[in-house]
Design brief:
Number of helices: 12
Radius of gyration: 35 Å
Largest sheet: 6 strands, mixed
Strand content: 15-25%
Oligomer: single chain
Helix content: 40-55%
């Protein structure tokens, strides 16, 4: 006799199982998806930070004078510190064995630059020959400043690729052309480019000695820049830069009668020290991303275990019949495990493909401060999926073992 209500109950059970299986698979897939996206975002942050520090030489140290904020040895606060040539020369002797490249810098304030009848809105700076390496710049045409230019106070100028494109686009080369800087002619002898991009290419460089003599700079300097010898070990490089910074600051504080605890009078920027802070922060962020992703995956694994328990309960009668017909316990275990592995494998690879595809398509176009080209190592992501599958198998084993231990008589009585 056809029992409509019984068949309706069976169909409802099948439909519910499909929904539960879908939701469990979705949970697992979303776990992998979220983990891969978070890891990709973490790598993008690391790429962005590394890019920021690539703009200048990695081992560079920069010094700016400021204003005193504390009374010291009879000197009132509010004094503006002025760096001078003798400070630069003494440091060069004091720390000679710790310096790879060095250069002072003088900003030519209120200068006006003309090329023919065209007025140019670029700033002019007096630097020394080694400034090229401190700023991580390369030469596109001609040459950079040299020591002879510095010694004879040559009236020459180095322009950037950006200035060349904007001003000299009609010429094959700007080399040999003349710029009028505040009424004085400077011959262009080189064109430079900056690793940091066009935002660092609004400058015209002239020899420091020329800038001090021609533009009434006397022996004044606006800042000092150095690079330290490269060190293979990152921690050793950080320690080297901190030691150099502390020695430099101590001398300048003594030379300008500044209180040791006055942080505003002498300001020193040490990229290596900043990099260590950022990378330490990145380690914490990556750990948090891993934690969130793994917790999401664990939630999915728990779902797999639960769905397998439900499957075992609803297939108790079927399992009893199989055992009555001679099915071995391990064949029952294998049957349940296959379903658990199938769910986690399909869901895991689905989440992996979607997340990797999203990073591949969107990642190269991400242009956010401190985030550059989010991506993730495919081998790491793939290994995570295989670990997930193994975890799914473990999660399915316990319901499977429970199914294998069901007594035939009890199973056949199950409604």
């Amino acid at each position: 006799m056809f029992d409509l209500e019984r068949w309706q109950e069976i169909f409802d059970t099948i439909r519910k199982n499909k929904l539960r299986t879908f939701l469990t698979g979705l949970s697992v897939a979303s776990g992998i998806f979220i983990l891969v996206i978070l890891l990709g975002f973490g790598q993008g942050m690391q790429n962005g930070i590394a890019k920021e520090f690539e703009q200048d030489a990695a081992t560079s140290v920069w010094v700016w004078p400021g204003v005193t904020t504390k009374e010291y040895k009879g000197m009132n606060p509010g004094r503006r510190i002025q760096l001078r040539n003798e400070n630069y020369d003494f440091i060069a002797l004091l720390l000679e064995d710790q310096i790879e490249n060095k250069s002072p810098r003088l900003f030519i304030r209120n200068s006006f630059v003309n090329y023919g009848n065209e007025t140019l809105a670029y700033n002019v700076q007096g630097v020394s020959p080694q400034f090229q390496f401190i700023e991580n710049e390369f030469i596109s045409q001609g040459r950079f400043l040299n020591q002879k230019d510095e010694d004879v106070k040559s009236k020459i100028a180095i322009i950037s690729n950006k200035i060349n494109r904007e001003v000299f686009q009609k010429l094959d080369s700007p080399i040999g052309e003349f710029l009028d800087i505040s009424g004085i002619s400077f011959k262009i002898v080189g064109v430079y480019g900056d690793v940091g991009g066009e935002r660092e290419e609004d400058r015209i460089y002239i020899p420091l000695s020329t800038a001090q003599q021609v533009f009434n700079g006397a022996n004044r300097l606006n800042n000092l820049a150095y690079t330290l010898p490269p060190v293979d070990d990152f921690d050793a490089a950080v320690a080297q830069s901190i030691k150099f910074k502390n020695t430099l600051k101590t001398y300048l504080q003594q030379a300008h009668t500044v209180a040791p605890d006055d942080t505003s009078a002498i300001q020193i920027y040490n990229p290596m020290e900043e990099a260590k802070r950022f990378y330490s922060l990145m380690g914490g962020i990556k750990f948090f991303f891993w934690f969130v992703g793994v917790c999401t995956i664990i939630a999915g694994i728990v779902g797999v275990s639960n769905i397998m328990l439900i499957v075992v309960k609803e297939r108790t009668r079927e399992i009893g019949i199989r055992k009555a017909l001679g099915a071995k316990p391990w064949s029952i275990v294998g049957m349940i495990l296959h379903e658990a592995i199938f769910i986690t494998a399909i869901a895991g690879f689905t989440g992996l493909i979607l997340s990797m595809g999203l990073l591949e398509i969107v990642g190269p176009h991400v242009e956010v401060d401190y985030v550059l080209n989010p991506s993730v190592d495919f081998n790491v992501a793939l290994t995570t999926v295989f670990v997930l599958i193994f975890a799914g198998a473990v999660a399915g084993f316990f319901p499977a073992w429970r199914a294998a231990k069901i007594h035939v008589i009890e199973a056949l009585r199950d409604e």
